[in-house]
Amino acid sequence: LQRLDNLNEDDRRMLKDGDWDVNQGAYFGEFTRSIHVMPPFEIPSHWRRYRALDYGLDMLACYWIAVDIYGRAYVYKELHKPDVIIPDAARMIREMTDKDERITATYAPPDLMNRRQDTGKSVFDTFAENGVPLVKASNNRVQGWYAMKEWLHPFKDELGQTIAGLRIFSTCINLIEDIPALIHDKNNPNDCDTEPHEHTHGPDAIRYFIAGRPSPTPK
Question: Structure pTM?
Answer without folding.
Answer: 0.88
